[in-house]
Amino acid sequence: MSAAHENSLANDHASMGAHQTNSNPPTSIDRWRESIQSTLAGLTHFNCALVSDETSSTQDAAATSALGCVVTTGRQIAGRGRLGNLWADTGDQGLAATFVVKSQTPDRLAMAAAVATASTLRAMVSHDVAARIGVKWPNDIVVARAGAAPQKIAGILIESKDDRSLIGIGINVTQSSFAPEIAQRAISLLQLGQECDRLAVLLRLIQHLDHQLSASNRVMEEDYQTLDRTAGLRLKFRTPQGVVEGVVLRCDPSIGLLVQTSQGVKTLPAATTRVEP
Question: What residues have CB less than 8 Å from 259, skipping those under 6 apart?
Answer without folding.
Answer: 235, 237, 244, 246, 247, 248, 249, 265, 266, 267, 268
